[in-house]
Amino acid sequence: MADWTAGYTADIAYTYGYYHELNPLRAKLALTYAGLACPEFQNACELGFGQGVSVAMHAAAAPTSWAGTDFNPAHASFARQLAGSAGAPVQLSDEAFGEFARRDDLPQFDFIGLHGIWSWISQENRTIIVDFIRRRLKVGGVLYISYNTLPGWASFAPMRHLMNRYADAMVGGSQGAVNRVEQSLAFTDKVLAAEPKYAATNPGIADRMQKLKAQNRQYLAHEYFNRNWDPMYFADIAQQLNEAKLQFACSAHLGDHLPALNLTPAQQEVLAELPDRELRESVRDFMVNQQFRRDYWVKGLRQYSPYERLEALSRVRVMMVGPRENVPAKASGPAGTAELRPAVYGPILDALADHKPHTLGELAERVADKGLSLAAVAEATMMLGAINAVLPVQEDSVAQKARTRTRALNNEICRLARTSGNITSLASPLTGGAVSVPQFSQLFLLAHQNGRTTAREMAQAAWTLLNAQGQRLAMEGVALEGAEANIAELERRATTFLQQELPLLKAMHVAA
């Protein structure tokens, strides 16, 4: 019998994460800040969409039509259910990449996204994907790709090899992915306890293993236990993508656009001497010991003039998506900690504190009397975007058309929240994607929509669901006993939801 998994872990479902970088609106912000032209996104594609949370959110919350494939039929089935609940324009299949690439009913795409698949598939499939991009991505179109990177993985790669060798030799595939993970982790404890010279030469390995052991087992199975696992140098990725006529545009991680957060002055000086964009990225990876890259590439890169860049930035719309008081005073990066200086960030955050969309041009006018320019506002926006305090937003007319779909999708996710906390995001027609909303907040929102408007009523509705399933809340790792203790804690959380979260969800058109 043919192995349809192609060596990819398939006996345990992938996680239900949402990834902002797959949102074309995020791509537009990053590209514009980098001084690069960006197309309008009419048709988009996600290859290897996992559970489909991102593709469902983006298809529901924006006018873009999406297509995609994930070889795991369980993933494709759930993704179709999720997107179908919104009536979103999607074509989702469980075809292998080769089958999907041969289809003749697909449009030319303005955006193609690959999150977390490139390093975990065969070179044969990578070749198929590059050819698909070459044929199907429009001139001017954008590719998002993420992958494990060298040199960041150089020291830890032997541990991954050891875990897999042990799993193959001593556990076997019949015991399931979770058992393979657990037994391999236990074995590495024994190896490290024996003080191998490898660990002495790489003193950070023990700490890294401890952090790894605390992570979700579904994630670990897919990250470390596939047949293919190939961290690559940026130059190797560039060589393959250049075959599809792609040029590196910029990082999809907004914080990477801020040199002071990532590089020392000496490192910045070295990079400034390198005119070649791709060589500069390779050297930068060594400077920060890069482990995971998230990048945008463009077919036919077009650079703005300095004046055009500022014009384009002035039209970018953003809004604050969390409480003003929750914005941290500092941000961390490879170069250390950077202070969000009150003289700069204070006036900008004050202007955004109404939780309404503002163009960067409007913000610049609001804070001009503080001596802040449009360039300063744009840089602060990138920092605030990197910590997801601020998100780019669509025009109101576009958002209005998406509200019916996002409302239907959010109703389905809140319904799923009654029995599972897997999906921790809801769709916003303003952001064109999703915002973080944890399970209990979804339960409170569901109760609120059903006419339970007080914190006590919402707590009792949530408790009815939890109690029917034998679930209890925990405080500092200790389960609460008795209905009153659980309802009291739920009421406390519901009060916070009503006072802080619900107004924000309404501002983002997530809640009515």
State the end-to-end distance: 52 Å
Rounded to an integer in angstroms, the radius of gyration calculated over CA atoms is: 24 Å
Helix content range of the residues, please? 40-55%
Low-confidence stretches: none
What fraction of residues sit in β-strands? 5-15%
Query: What's the average pLDDT?
Result: 91
Q: Any idea what the shape is? A: globular
Which class of secondary structure composition applies to the elements?
alpha/beta
Strand order of the largest sheet: 3-2-1-4-5-7-6
The major pleated sheet works out as:
7 strands, mixed
- Total helical segments: 22
Please characterize this protein's 3D structure.
By secondary structure, this protein is α/β, with parallel strands linked by helices. The protein has 22 helices and 16 strands. The protein has helices at 24-33, 53-61, 73-86, 97-101, 123-136, 157-171, 177-193, 197-201, 205-213, 217-224, 234-242, 259-262, 265-272, 277-288, 306-315, 342-352, 360-366, 374-386, 396-416, 439-449, 455-468, 483-507, and strands at residues 43-47, 65-69, 90-93, 109-114, 137-148, 247-251, 292-298, 317-320, 330-333, 336-339, 358-359, 390-392, 425-428, 433-436, 474-475, 478-479. The strands form five sheets. It has a seven-stranded mixed beta sheet with strand order 3-2-1-4-5-7-6. Helix 2 (53-61) runs parallel beside helix 3 (73-86), helix 20 (439-449) packs across helix 21 and helix 21 (455-468) crosses helix 22. It is globular and about 60 Å long. The termini are far apart. The model has no long low-confidence stretch (mean pLDDT 91).
